[in-house]
Write a structure and sequence with these properties.
By secondary structure, this protein is an alpha/beta fold. The protein has 2 domains: 156 residues, FAD/NAD(P)-binding domain (3-Layer(bba) Sandwich), CATH 3.50.50; 197 residues, D-Amino Acid Oxidase, subunit A, domain 2 (D-Amino Acid Oxidase, Chain A, domain 2), CATH 3.30.9. The chain is 36% helix and 26% strand. The strands form 4 sheets. Strands 5-6-4-14-15-16-13-17 form an 8-stranded mixed sheet, sandwiched between helices. Strands 8-2-1-12-19-18 form a 6-stranded mixed sheet, covered by helices on one side. A hairpin with a 2-residue loop joins strand 15 and strand 16. The longest helix is centred in the N-terminal third of the chain and has 34 residues. The protein starts with 6 loop residues before the first helix and ends with a helix. Bound molecules: flavin-adenine dinucleotide. Flavin-adenine dinucleotide binds next to helix 2, strand 13, strand 17 and helix 10. Its EC number is 1.-.-.-. Keywords: Membrane, Oxidoreductase, Transmembrane, Transmembrane helix. Pfam families: DAO (PF01266).
Length: 378
Amino acid sequence: MSSNLSYWEKATFFNFDIVIIGSGIVGLNAAIHLKKTCPLLKIIVLERGFLPSGASTKNAGFACFGSLSELMEQEAICGTEGLMLLIEKRWKGLLKLRTLLGDENLDYRQFGGYELFTNDDDATIEQCVSKIEHYNKLITPIIGTQAFCLANDKIKSLGFNNVQNLIYNQYEAQIDTGKMMFNLIQLAQSLQIFILNNCQVNEIISDDKQTVIHTNQGKFYCKKAIVTTNAFVKSLLPGLDVEPGRGQVLITKPIENLKIEGTFHYNKGFYYFRNINDRILLGGGRNLDFNAEATTEFGETSLVQNTLEMLLTNIILPNTPFEIDQRWSGIMAFGKYLEPIITEAKPNIFCAARCNGMGIAMGSQTGTDVAELVLKSL
Ligand SMILES: Cc1cc2nc3c(=O)[nH]c(=O)nc-3n(C[C@H](O)[C@H](O)[C@H](O)COP(=O)(O)OP(=O)(O)OC[C@H]3O[C@@H](n4cnc5c(N)ncnc54)[C@H](O)[C@@H]3O)c2cc1C
């Protein structure tokens, strides 16, 4: 512990009822639910970064519940009933986030979502089209109406090249990720949740009497700890089924008369793009080298970035000059199962992680669920 801490500092800033580790969407939602349910709880969120430094401030801002080809893949993994439960969680999760912060604070815009199929995608498009009715039937009891339809008439007006088919879902939307996180942090602070940044947690030790959180700033003491460090969770809780997956992104400079509006998936969701403030944000390409992208290190590779640029030139903006303004990456968490992990991993140490690249839809509920587990244990 830093040698210059005062008696006051140690007594006031290092003792809490609950310590939450990680200030992403899941950690903040856990803190907010706990504080709203039990206002007297003294809660702190410890974040290693100057800003949240995982996925929640780095993502693409799709408020979506799965493109048709993604749903097909997921149904093969978890069965029809399992998939329905997942879709319901994502849909209700989005409603929960919107209710918590309000559409204005998210800049929520329901432009709809599209899945693109290029001329060489014959087999996939046939399969997907044949499943439109099936997935419409599955989601109708959940969202109250059908969602998927073919929208090939829109291909020309969107200006794409080499695209043969589009499947449209009018219930998909986009948000401003920065505004979401800014407002989540402000909401947490307004509820008197204390957030400390630049505080890296290195170890958590719990016994019958107390839980001790060892950090680069000293030891914090609490009754219960919640680990919401997502892709980085194994450094604190080894053995969980969590694999990191880096997502690389780029954004163009503003483009005059940009025709593209909405959220778009391509190649089974491995590529995704959207409009934002007259720009195109494009990400994906983990499938080009799964091993290299299964990392907790931030960074960009020329393989992925060049492929993203080629996609812009050849398919998305074929007749429009563009310049790249920024590139970045974020780290997601994946696992064998599509459900997040929400558990008491060790006595008094809880964990909520692994939203499988769908944290905007799943993060609020995941945070709430782990908070409920903790409340039951108090
Ligand atoms: C490029 C990209 C695009 C994405 N696009 C979408 C999308 O369009 N729609 C969607 O629904 N989802 C998307 N996602 C996924 C979504 O962002 C995540 O599922 C979600 O943000 C996970 O939230 P989290 O709170 O679990 O984790 P994180 O946001 O990763 O939060 C974990 C936090 O823990 C902190 N931390 C880690 N280790 C420690 C430690 N030892 N001590 C203290 N703090 C620590 C990290 O700095 C981080 O802030 C995308 C992700 C990426 C990377």
